[in-house]
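Ticket #4471: structure output looks truncated?

Reporter: J.K.
Steps to reproduce: submitted the chain below (122 residues) through the standard prediction queue, then opened the result file.
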Amino acid sequence: MEADLVQRVKSDPNYQKLVRTRSRYGWMLALSVMIVYYGFTALNAWDKAFMASKIGNGVMSWGVPLGLFVILFTVAVTAIYVRRANREFDALTDAIHQNAAAGTAQPAATNAHVTQPTKVRA
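Returned output as attached by the reporter:
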């Protein structure tokens, strides 16, 4: 029974769409975070004069707002992922659960802009 359930889930088009979409999206966001983090670290390592230079006539250096940007960027990326996960990924997961429980696999929507998963009709 367990092997049959695993096979039904793996063969479900909604599951395949979920894995493909979530993986691609996760790697894209991870890459953007890495670029920002390593960019900030590289600036600290190789351009200390710029990071220590004052903004205007004030006492704050460029390192402070850039560091704050890194933190806010991380929070924004997390919020973006959570928003999409709650809207699209959770709906696909629910459809996968329903299809597995019913013993059927409904085809996923072919339109890339449609985020509504297919559901089993009772």
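Triage note (M.O.): checked the attachment and the full token line is present. Residues 110-114 have pLDDT under 50 and may be disordered.
Status: closed, working as intended.
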